Fold this sequence. Notes:
By secondary structure, the chain is α/β, with parallel strands linked by helices. The chain has five helices and four strands. The chain has helices spanning 12-27, 65-87, 114-126, 146-149, 151-159, and strands spanning 34-38, 92-96, 134-136, 140-141. Strands 1-2-3-4 form a four-stranded mixed sheet, with helices on both faces. Strand 2 (92-96), helix 3 (114-126) and strand 3 form a beta-alpha-beta unit. Helix 1 (12-27) packs parallel to helix 2 and helix 2 (65-87) packs across helix 5 (151-159). The protein starts with 11 loop residues before the first helix and ends with a helix. The relative contact order is 0.19.
Amino acid sequence: GGFKKTEDGLPALMAVNTLATYILSCLIRPVPKRVVYLSSGLHSGGDGSLRDLDWRERGEGRWSDGQAYADSKLHNIMFAKGFGRRWGKRVMANSMDPGWVATKMGGSGAPGSWDASAQTYEWLATGVEGTGGYWKPGKKEARPSRAAEDEGKQDELLRI
Length: 160
């Protein structure tokens, strides 16, 4: 936790979870048949305005690990939906929430199932035929936050 910067002065969390995801999506060759963006139910707390993605306005003093994480997970759903529309049927782009599973961040007492998460991820990576979906463990399609569904903001994020 805490505010950490890259050599370029960007918040490390934003650089890894948002910027790197975008760059890889744009540069990967050959273009894969399927892309799965990892999100989280915490995306619902993300700021869909896309203002101050790099936290330069808010600054280090107002940094919030939780807000930055929620923003980045919202961005991942927006990438799946935006790239899904851009790529059309050539690439199945989807996002998933692995659920609350035992991880360093989730804690050892998290009640989610690694197996259900892994099976959903594998299915999205190998078999699903839809694009732009948001999925939860057990191969359950879900509705993300309203901000994630905003096509204008998805397009704006793809231009940033």
